[in-house]
Amino acid sequence: MIITLIKKEIKSNSKIYIIFLSVIAIYIFSLLSMYNPALEESLIALEKSMPEILAIFGMQNRGTTLLDFIVNYLYRFVLIVTPFIYTAIMCYKLVTKYEEKGAMAYLLNSHYSRKQIIITQGINLLLGISVMIVFATALTILSCAIMFRGELDIIGFLTLNFGLLILQIFLATFCFMFTCAFSEIKYSVGLGAGIGSLFIMIQMVSQVYDNELLKYCNPLSLFNPDKIIEYNPISLLCIGILFVLSILFFVVAVKAFKRKDLNL
């Protein structure tokens, strides 16, 4: 790991961090402002008027508790898609952009090895994802403590966010693997972002049409918020599977980059 490179990336990408954290903060504040018994009838009317559209985004079941409400409106779409968009952008900025601009030659001419460089860039990617999830977790807990004291199941919520973090690490390492294997942007970013987007679209369709094939051919199905907050052993095991796959993708990414023809 190269500390200097980590500091450089944090500084140069600070605006992107602020933008994505701000978007998440807006979503969280907007959501919590909707958790009001006075709005219950309005939400029910909304669900009845457009059930298919809400089902696409997984928002068809508000549940009975504050945690159920948060899961329904944040953890089926918003907090899956937003960090994923960040991942796609950062995969380009951390690896592909260096190759396109010729800056990778500068890094490789230092006394650091390819392995050290790419592991550091992978850590930069995962660090940003981790900060994003921790920020969302802390902000939601703090906001609920102020607005709805004692109503949030903290342990269940932390368990849920641990699962979300593993899911985002899975998606990040998946995209990173393609970035390290290919030089052309249509492959290096396009494949990872494209396939990841396909996973998300399949999940959206499967939430409208209860199709077992669509459900079980999609790795995103391993993340089941409803079951996680119930501490379902199978769902927790699925999170472990995502973590193992993430390690595998990262190892493949490092090996692919070491053998990659960078055309410097």
Question: How is this structure best described in words?
Answer:
The protein has 264 residues and is mainly alpha-helical. It has 14 helices and no strands. The chain has helices at 3-12, 14-34, 40-49, 51-56, 66-74, 78-101, 103-108, 114-147, 154-181, 185-188, 190-208, 212-216, 225-228, 233-259. The longest helix is centred in the middle third of the chain and has 34 residues, at 114-147. It is globular, with a radius of gyration of 20 Å. It starts with a helix and ends in a 5-residue tail after the last helix. The relative contact order is 0.13. The model is unreliable at 54-58 (pLDDT under 50).
Task: Bin the strand percentage.
Answer: under 5%
Number of helices: 14
Number of strands: 0
Radius of gyration: 20 Å
Shape: globular
Q: Characterize the biggest β-sheet.
A: none
Spans of at least 5 consecutive residues with low confidence? 54-58
Layout of helices and strands:
Elements (H helix, E strand, L loop, with lengths): L2 H10 L1 H21 L5 H10 L1 H6 L9 H9 L3 H24 L1 H6 L5 H34 L6 H28 L3 H4 L1 H19 L3 H5 L8 H4 L4 H27 L5
Q: Notable features of this structure?
A:
single chain, about 260 residues, mainly alpha, globular
Please summarize what this structure is:
With 264 residues, this protein is an all-alpha fold. It has 14 helices and no strands.
